[in-house]
Structures are given as C-alpha cells and as structure tokens.
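REVIEWER CHECKLIST
Item 1: Sequence provided? yes
Item 2: Single chain? yes
Item 3: Sequence as submitted:
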Amino acid sequence: MKHRDIIQALQKADLKTIPIELVRENLKLFEQFGVMVTTLHPGKRIIRARLSEKESFDNISALSYKPQKYNSTFQRASTPYKTMFYGSIVPEIQAESEPSTARITILFEISEFVRDVNSIGELDITFSAWDVIENIDLVSIVHHKKFARPTQLSINLQKQFEELVAKNPDLEIPSLEISDYLANEFAKSTISDHTDYTISATYSEIISEKYDGILYPSVRLAGEGINIALKPETVDAKLQFIGASECRIYKNKLPVFLDNLTNAQIYNGTSLKFLPLKRPIF
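Item 4: Structure as written out by the authors:
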C-alpha cells in the first residue's frame, strides 16, 4: 500500500473498534521513511508531576511511570499494553516567550483546573526531578502547522528534518506527509474517548522498540513547551531520581501562584519523607 492509502485508511477507521494489531501493522509500514531523532545528554533535567493525594507519596516508584498492571487506557504516547514515563523539559535553545521552567508545561498537561481560565481555588501537586545519566534518543514529533506558539526547538527540528529528507527525493514527499499526519494525531486537543489516542499511542509503542521514546510539543500550551514519553526500561537504566517537592497552586481565574510546601528526604534507598521547606531543591 502507498503511504497515502495507509493514512486514508487510518483516518477513516473507527478507533473504538479497529483491532490494535491492524493499526500496528499499518503504522509499521511507515518505518522505512525518515524520522528526526533528538538526544538528551547526561545532566539534562526532566520534570514530572502528579496530583497530590491525601497522604504524601512514600516511595520513588510512586512518582515514576504507572505500573503496567494499572495501565488500562490509551494516552497520547502510551497504549494499555505498554506504560510510559511522561515528563517535560526546557530546551537549551528557547524563544523569549517560551516557559522558562518545565513545571509550567507539565502543570498545563496534567490539570484541567490550571488550564481553565475561569477556575478559582487551590490544587496540590507533587513535582519530581530526574536527571539523564546516559544518552537518551527520542523520535521527535514536530511537524504541526496549527500550533499558535511553536517552540524554537520545534522550529529548528522541523527545518533539520526537511533538509534531511530533501537529500533523498524518493522519500522526501512521503516522509513529510507521514510526519504531518502523525503530528496531527499527537496534536489532538479534543478527546471524547481514550481510543482517540490509538494512533499516536501505538506509534509511540512501535518507536520505543528501537528508541528510548518520543519527544513532542505541548498541545495544552499550543505548542509552546516540550514533553517527552520514555519507556520504562530507559527510566530504570538512564535516569536518576534527584528529588521531589509538594506544592500548592492558588488560582483566581488567570492569576496563578505556586507555593512550595515540602521537599522529599530519601531514606533506605527508595523511601520518601516530605519535610517542610521554604524553597524547592530544583
């Protein structure tokens, strides 16, 4: 099948009923075309967040990827069959308007309360910081023209990708059209059912067989912000837990204030105890 036939078939499919193996079989046919790979080098910091619970998280694993036995739905970059570690980063190259901290990006990703311009109240969040200790290679999803505020990193990666595929005229058009299709899937903002993520999630699972995961722009920030999704094997081998901080968000419609409440102390190697501190460690 030609790449356009595959795209058209997937666009017409009922994602609530299409067999996942059929989706996988079709997406695997895209592997012969070009992708853009971004490498995170040792020392790069990744920020992750979870909505706080009644009791503080008492173990590092509770702040890491969701255990597979609890992973039952499609998400933007993970299937029910393969859990992933989601986080946000701040690129080395930034435009002036971009978020200067990955906390902003991850907050908008996980909380409707934060995104709602009319919300008023409080919300508790637990942030965790993780450092890269070995090169992490991520397939970059960047080619989406509808983002209002694309990051400088996305712009640079797209330019590099276009220059790369232009060197092979036979693959140039298919590669750009496949990239555009996948970017549209990753950029879905209105989700009525978790299966709406079937395409992006299954592609991420396929990519994770050869790479460490996926890098993609923040949909919730109209492209302004960078997210990553890593496979568990990469987290276990190539990331180091640095620390965690419990915070409280105070929101009055548009104004938002973030108060740092506690920092985590590590004992017995993996256990956590949160103690009051005036400022975070990351």
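Item 5: Key structural point noted by reviewer: The first strand starts at residue 36 and ends at 40.
Item 6: Recommendation: ____
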